[in-house]
Amino acid sequence: MSLVGACKPGASTPPVVAAPAAVVAPVLPQGSGCGPSIARTQAVVDSDVTTGNLNAPVGERFSADLRRASEACGSGNEREALSLLAAAKARYGYR
Predict the structure, then answer these.
(1) Looking at the whole model, is its pTM more than 0.70?
(2) Where are the beta strands (DSSP E) in 1-95?
(3) Are 35 and 58 in contact (CB under 8 A)?
(4) How far apart are CA 45 and CA 60, in angstroms?
C-alpha cells in the first residue's frame, strides 16, 4: 500500500472571506436651530468613531467641544452655540 498520494492536496477550495459588517448610517436629528445642528454633528462624530474613520481620542475632544456648544444653546445663546459649533467643525475638518 502506497501513502505517497495521501500527501498530495486534493482540489483546493478558495478561502472563505468574511464580508465586512454593514455600516448603518446614523439617523440624524431633524429640525433647525442650534440644538438639532449640534445633535446632527454629534451623531456623525459618534458614527465616525464607531466605524474607525475618526480615532476615539479625537472623537472625545470633538464631543467635548460640542458639549460646550450644546451648553450655550441650552442657555439660549444660539449665536454663541452656532459659532462654537462652526469652530469645532472647522478644527476637526468637518463641514
Answers:
(1) yes
(2) none
(3) no
(4) 9
Residue length of the chain = 95
Those residues whose C-beta lies under 8 Å from the C-beta of residue 95, and which sit 6 or more positions away, are 89
Angle, alpha carbons 85-51-32 (nearest 5°): 30
Q: Tell me which DSSP letter residue 14 carries.
A: P
Phi first, then psi, for residue 24 (nearest 5°) are -100, 125
Encode pLDDT of 43-73 as tens digits: 999 999 999 999 999 999 999 999 999 999 9
Q: How far apart are CA 78 and CA 75, in angstroms?
A: 8
Find, among 39, 28, 27, the residue nearest to 67 by Cα.
39
Helices and strands: H and E segment counts in the chain: 3, 0
Q: For cell 440644538, name the residue.
A: 35
